[in-house]
Each structure stands twice: as C-alpha cells, then as structure tokens.
Amino acid sequence: MQKFLENNKKTLLAALGVGAAAAAAILALQHFSANKKAVAGDATPVKQGGELTKLEKANIIAAIQIEWINDNLSVESIKQISDAVVKFAFPEFVELTRRDREERRANTEDIQKYIDLWESYTQRLEELVEKSQKTVLENLQISEAAFEKSNSYHISENNQELFMLQATLLNRLKANLRGTKTLTLEEFRDIIRTQVELMNKEAENYKEISAKTKHPEEAAPIINNKVSDLIYHKYTVEEEDLNVAMTSYIEDPVSQGLFRELQQANMKLLPLGDFF
C-alpha cells in the first residue's frame, strides 16, 4: 500500500478530500448509489462504536477467501482484504476524524494552521491504513511484498476497478460514518444552496492555498474540508448527515439542479483529467 500511496498521490488526495460537496461535483447521483452498494455488499458490517474485539477481528479474517492465480492474489481476494482493512481501521478512524474536525473548526480563519492540520491528518490517516493492512496481512500470512506485487500486476493489466478500490479506500472509511441528524427536504436544499455559495467564494482562495501546500493538488480537498466546516458552523450538520439526506432526496428535481450548480463550482477545483 505504501508504494501505491506514493505513486498515486494525486488520485488519493482527490479521493480523501471528496466530501458531500465534492461528491456531487464528481459523481453526483452515481456516487451515493455506489457507496450504498459497496457498504451493502460487505459480508460483515463495519462496527460503528468502540474497538474491535479479538473475536470480531477473527471473524473478519475468517470471512476472507484467499485465491492465488499463479503468483498473484486474485482481484476478488484483494477486494476482500481491502474491505477488511477498512473494518480494522474504522474504530480508530472515527476518533482521529473527530479530533481533526474539532481542531479544523477552531482554525478556519488561519489558513496556514488549517493547511498544517490537513497535512497532519492525512499523514496519520495513511499510517493508520498502513498499520491496519499490515495486521490483516499478518493474520492471513501474506507478505506485504506479495500483496503489493499482486496489486501492481492487476493495475498494470488496466484493472480500473481495482485501482479505484485502492484509491478510494480512505473515502470508503468516510462513507461508513453514520449520520445522526435527519434533514427535511427544505433544509437539505438550503444547505446545498449554501454549499454552492461557499464553494464559489472559497474557490477564490485556490491559488493562495495551493502556493502554501507541499503539493498543489492538496488545495482542492482542503477547500472542500473548509466548506464542510463552515456548513457545520451554520447548520450543525456533518458530511455523513448530508450523505444520508442525499440518498433520500436524490430524485428531487430541485436538488438535482442544485447538484449541477455545485458541480460547476467544484470544477474550478477539480480538473478531472489531472486526477484520473
């Protein structure tokens, strides 16, 4: 995974930064149907609270069916391992994200501090994924080298599904956060309208933020995080609350029009050709 993270930094940064706002910009309706399908397809649901017990970890490992094709793991085996990594990492991810949100929201006016917090969070998150993957592979008695080799082989064979599975692993962690607030259709529309306004306003800071980051492409997810934080300050609504509402109101014509407006605002930050 480490080599994958290094070789595909731009795609991973895009994936990590995609919240409720950017989701509408990139995939609109498909994003949420895909998320529901991915979560529903897991054999073992992701635990929402507290650490995994030894038995829970053992059950997750036992559910993985390992298949080798010549010297490489099958694509299906890699998918199951990736799902297990998400489940192992999720409890710590929840606490890490909670602390990050608190720190971010206390520093929305300090651009440099906000950027520093982003870089710290992404580093700790990458370390968490690495640690979880190492644990899963050790339990399966599969070397990290063999896993990396199998991933590289299938991606070199142009397996886009597997590439995006790995690239969006961090975002799949976010997709498992459950909303706690129910929004009416009017509340949801109002929030999306505000997102459009904020995205257009914050896009004006793109060059300034990009110049202050280690990697210019980090500006997009940083701005998306800031929009999410400003939405929280105004409505006390988290990204996962919006995700739930979007799945409920995805067929609403007015909401679909707002998604298109949000898409246009996000396109100022996410030139898709640079990421995919």
Brief characterization of the structure:
By secondary structure, the protein is mainly α.
What are its keywords?
74% helix; 16 helices; 276 residues
Explain what the structure shows.
This protein is mostly helical. Helix content is 74%, strand content 1%. It contains 16 helices and two strands. A two-stranded antiparallel ribbon has the order 1-2. A hairpin with a 2-residue loop joins strand 1 (68-69) and strand 2 (72-73). Helix 2 runs parallel beside helix 13 and helix 6 (75-105) packs antiparallel against helix 7 (111-140).
CA-based shape: globular
Radius of gyration: 19 Å
Structurally, the number of domains stands at 2
The SS-based structural class is mainly alpha
Oligomeric state: single chain
Instruction: Provide the residue-averaged pLDDT.
Output: 84
Major sheet details: 2 strands, antiparallel
Instruction: State the end-to-end distance.
Output: 18 Å
Low-confidence stretches: 17-44, 272-276
Q: How much helical structure, as a percent, in the residues?
A: over 70%
Task: Give the topology, please.
Layout: H1 2-7, H2 9-17, H3 20-26, H4 29-40, H5 54-62, E1 68-69, E2 72-73, H6 75-105, H7 111-140, H8 144-156, H9 160-167, H10 169-175, H11 185-202, H12 206-212, H13 219-235, H14 239-249, H15 253-266, H16 272-275
Antiparallel strand pairs: 1-2
Helix pairs in contact: 2-13, 3-15, 6-7, 6-10, 11-13, 11-15, 12-13
